[in-house]
From TrEMBL:
Coiled coil (residue ranges): 14-102
Protein name, UniProt field: Troponin I, fast skeletal muscle
GO molecular function: actin binding
The entry's keywords: Acetylation, Actin-binding, Coiled coil, Muscle protein
Membership in a protein family: Belongs to the troponin I family.
GO biological process, one term: skeletal muscle contraction
SUPFAM superfamilies membership: Troponin coil-coiled subunits
Short name of any one Pfam family annotated for the protein: Troponin
Superkingdom, natural source: Eukaryota
PANTHER family linked: TROPONIN I (PTHR13738), TROPONIN I, FAST SKELETAL MUSCLE (PTHR13738:SF15)
Function text: Troponin I is the inhibitory subunit of troponin, the thin filament regulatory complex which confers calcium-sensitivity to striated muscle actomyosin ATPase activity.
Length: 178
């Protein structure tokens, strides 16, 4: 148990030391990024000095407008390059999958569609046939079964009981039994 305690204590100590090192590295990285940002801004964006006359202000506005246009063109060019490279990457990935022979199957969803809707989706405006399956079914008349005929012949059960009640009914039952 002493070894186990020592191992866990050492592990905890190493873990805390690694976390402290990582925290200092992160602070250094953020400070370096901030310094790089400040250097870039100082290099590319000189401090703005506003002239006093209207003519000089208009010239300054024209210069700023020209700079904005050039930056916008650069942004557009880099965006197009990025789109082109991503498209090339996707094509190369697809070729890789084709060469390996492993295909990603897209997740399929269940769709409830009637036959008419399916034909309309497949054929578009050419679809003119109605696929109402219930309309083509043959109608069948219900035939009377023998049980139903027997029930109709028996008639109302109250009449039977009234006939069998009393002495006359018992006499009929006795005679029917013989």
């Amino acid at each position: 148990q002493k070894k186990r305690r020592a191992a866990t204590a050492r592990r905890q100590h190493l873990k805390s030391a690694m976390l402290q090192l990582a925290a200092t590295e992160i602070e250094k990285e953020t400070a370096a990024k901030e310094a790089e940002k400040q250097n870039y801004l100082a290099e590319h964006c000189p401090p703005l000095s506003l002239p006093g006359s209207m003519q000089e202000l208009q010239e300054l506005c024209k210069k700023l407008h020209a700079k904005i246009e050039s930056v916008d063109e650069e942004r557009y060019d880099t965006e197009m390059k990025l789109q082109k490279t991503t498209k090339e990457l996707e094509d190369l990935n697809q070729k890789l999958f084709d060469l390996r022979g492993k295909f990603k199957r897209p997740p399929l969803r269940r769709v409830r569609m009637s036959a008419d809707a399916m034909l309309r989706a497949l054929l578009g405006s050419k679809h003119k046939v109605c696929m109402d399956l219930r309309a083509n079914l043959k109608q069948v008349k219900k035939e009377d079964t023998e049980k139903e005929k027997d029930l109709r012949d028996v008639g109302d059960w109250r009449k039977n009981i009234e006939e069998k009640s009393g002495m006359e009914g018992r006499k009929k039952m006795f005679e029917a039994g013989e």
